[in-house]
Amino acid sequence: MAPKFGTSGLRGLVVELTPALIAHHVTAFLRTCPAGSGLFVGRDLRGSSPRIADDVIAAARALGIDVTDCGAVPTPALALAAMAAGAAAVMVTGSHIPADRNGLKFYTPEGEITKAQEVAILAALEEAPPAPARSGALAHAKPGPRFVARYALAFGPDALTGRRIGIWSHSAVGRDLLIDTLAALGAETVEIARSETFIPVDTEAVPKDARAFLRETAATQRLDAIVSTDGDGDRPLVTDEAGEVIPGDILGQITAGLLGAGVTVTPVSSNTGIEASGAMARVIRTKIGSPYVIAGMEAALAGDPAARVVGYEANGGFLLGFDATGPAGPLPALMTRDSHLPIIAPLVAAGQGPISARVAAEPARFTAADRLQEVPTEASAALVAALSEEPAAQAGFLADFGDETLTGIDRTDGLRLTLASGRIIHLRPSGNAPELRFYAEAETAAAAAALLAQGLASLRARIG
Q1: Does domain 146-360 have CATH number 3.40.120.10?
Q2: Which residues are the active-site residues?
Q3: May I ask the CATH class of domain 366-463?
């Protein structure tokens, strides 16, 4: 996987993320985007992240930028601290991809870089680097306590009293902060399976063995829920009392409702329950990726600055576009993908009842997603193009699903087909890894899982 810069920042194999390449991208970012009062730098728990973070710090200081090293910290906590200080930020993380890969996420003092800023950075990569300036200063900070306090203030010390919640720590960088947050809200916490070896956890495609582990743990530990995040802490994972994983888009729907949102922005990969609920004045659909969600949120706010706008993705990451009020206090806007809020809000929304009952109250639309790994991007793109543009190829593909009649085709991001049954199949090449993703939506969780299994088998046969 050659290093690639795009919607999710820079991603690539660790052996190819050389100090020179890191410096090149950091320089392009700082030359084209506002840095405000300086640069905050954080990292996840991959073995390669400390070295890459040092490369980022050295490159920024060589440009005369003052740097605050935040150490190992979740992405949303880093972004919150940087924005509060009026500073830019770089997070060293590969998110959910394997440990032999890593990357950088870029933030201006206003939040995640926009698509326009991405274009400017790409253009700057073609230019010669500037001559070194004075060396910037280096400071250190711990953003974690401020991040925990954000939720303690909004939800209060009794929000989760009486709840016994498991925290699947694995190698998530925010595992300790998540334990601290839930304890601050009154929950009894039980830590599960902490790992000192990096484990790539994709909250949108939890494998069968992990799901079985979560179900067994929920039963043996008598838990009300199990919660976790991906490696850099910007995507949530939540199970119900039986250890069944709750899809991220359902977490988003429940969170939006609890906060009293009026406008929801979400990618085409999220289930259609948000429209079916009728709770939102407006639902805006985008391409997949937080920059597209942010662009949609900003457009909605430009039209109505007082709009109660939120955004979420099928992976569960939640963005708060207005100053909300929690059960106990204020919850200021945070226009970056967060995991803590969509973990806490559904647990609070369930009251003292089972989490599964609150999930069952949502419209009966269920998604399932997974991906074929190590599929070259060009092979994925070619297959999606063929299924989109060639009638014979499309008919053969649909025959795998029972020769269904199409009632809708959406090419916003990949190929999304709505079948006569109301079920939805969606395939999309990943933008930052050699993966072909498949999303399924149906009227029951079992039907969505069956649709996903058939879709993956069909794609696997066609990829070869």
Answers
A1: yes
A2: 95
A3: alpha beta
